[in-house]
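SAMPLE LOG
Freezer: B-3
Tube label: C17
Construct: single chain, 81 aa
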Amino acid sequence: MHSLSLFEFQQLSLDKQVDLLTAKAQYLAWKSEGEYNVYLYKFEDFFAEAWMHLRMSKIIRISCSKISSSPEGYDKDIKIS
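STRUCTURE (predicted):
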């Protein structure tokens, strides 16, 4: 299987994105943002943030960014390799 590009990932349904996060991505860290826990994952070429609504206990959104623009607000001690 070829590595998944950011564009290809964004074309998938939310359910398929969640499945790929748990099966193929590297979990890095999490942070709290109001009513959400945000989980940071790393694919080969991009980061993905899974936004879980605390009361619903459900991921309602996944936002992505290129590796060159590291997401902010996570523990500075996490190692991104």
